[in-house]
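Database export, one record per block. Field names are fixed; values are copied verbatim from the stored entry.
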Amino acid sequence: MSLPGLLSIRRLALVGLAALCGCQPAAPIKVGFVGGLSGRVSELTVDARNGTQLAIETLNARPGPRYELRSHDDGHTAELGAVAIDSMADEGDAFAIGPMMSGVAKGMAPQASKRHLVLISPTANSDELNGLDDYFFRVIPTAGPGADQLAEAAIARGLKSAAVMAEWRNSAYSDSFTRRFDARFQALGGAPAKVVRYETDQSPDYAHIATELLVSHPKVLLLVCSAVDASIVSQQLRRLDPGVQIAMSSWSANVQLLQLGGRAVEGALVLQVLDLDSRAPAWLDFRDRFVQRYGSTPSQAAVFAYDATMMGAEGLRRKTDNQSLRDVLRAPGTWPGVQQAVVFDHFGDSVSRFRLSEVHAGRFVMLH
């Protein structure tokens, strides 16, 4: 027999031996992603999915198991989110990243617990989700201390009257954040805050909202909404009262605010969990890879989604046969992150803290 023929027979024999030995490539580990991928407030979700995808690619470039990402659109509703939970559980996903909105998370968390599916959110941080014995984890700090920080910063600047614009479709977050801010603000000597509620999917009249916010001549205006909405209403506010102090929750804290808000957001106080000017090697490496992959600067949603995915994979690596992933994540310890380590309490709530920034010359400048 010719040499090529002998080589072909040898290859077939090796393939057959591998099959008999069970040496087939292991099936990839499935990782779910769920969030509102369409609509006006989808910018954070798209960024988070991109961060998750980059984490999957990073994991797959290493020796070890392969990972497969499976995305689901929750339509910004808990009902569709619960459907996604069932789908991910039925498909055998090891864990899931999402959702982005606290209101959706509040409705999804019970279903995730029912299906024993670990759910790690990059951005849902309402105080209403605190202290629950469930399968829901979040890498972003809980909202309450951040609301306190903004109230304290306003009072420290002598600003003792406030008005709040709160997006109400995500009321699980905006309501708890507003109430926490107002309680701390009044405790420090401020007047009760006027609250103007709206829903971003109801074609709001931003000029009217701005006028309503300024009726009582507040010294500080707190915007609890997306970067898009904050940019638009800031432009209206500057037209009516150029000198009023604007403050924003971390929901608005991404590059889109700077790009869309322009001069209107100069001087705004913004809660941050991300320092875009950090020189930390892990951040620079992640930022450069994200920009190369997607052509844009990563937001906090992208960073925390990346951290959450890497954390889930590391948890799977650490767990023993008699442990669940939930057990591993809830054990005392820290989890490395792109910019800061993540530390969970017993309930899977992050105990990290926010930082306060001020928009200056088109940048977020950290205040110390």
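Remark 1: The chain has two domains: 29-142+280-350, 144-276+355-366.
Remark 2: The first strand starts at residue 29 and ends at 35.
End of record.
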